[in-house]
Design brief:
The chain is mainly α. The protein is built from four helices and no strands. α1 packs parallel to α3 and α2 runs antiparallel to α3. The radius of gyration is 18 Å and the shape is flat. The mean pLDDT is 80.
Length: 116
Amino acid sequence: MTLPTGGSIALARVAVGAAAPTLFGLILAAADRLRAVRYAKPVSELTFPQALGYGFAQALALIPGVSRSGGTISAGLFMGYSREGAARYSFLLAIPAVLAPVSWNSSRSARRCPGS
């Protein structure tokens, strides 16, 4: 068994980074066309398994080229939420996803700065 070389790993990353936006763009388009309904359920009816589904969709953003908000909006549409409800919940999910790294980096920077 041989291990992949650095060049083949880099090429795989480029391929994933190029294919992911196209694939997830098609998924978002399919969710919008197939599942966006005029009288969808409100986000206040979100269940725990659906929240886990949202979390899984958000975790897909770890794949290079995948949009965190696009993934969570698609998941919300597939679960039967309105476009507006799915988008609002997606942006609420962004709060901890953005604030956690900011606070982590701020605390690390504060520890490295002498005299503060």
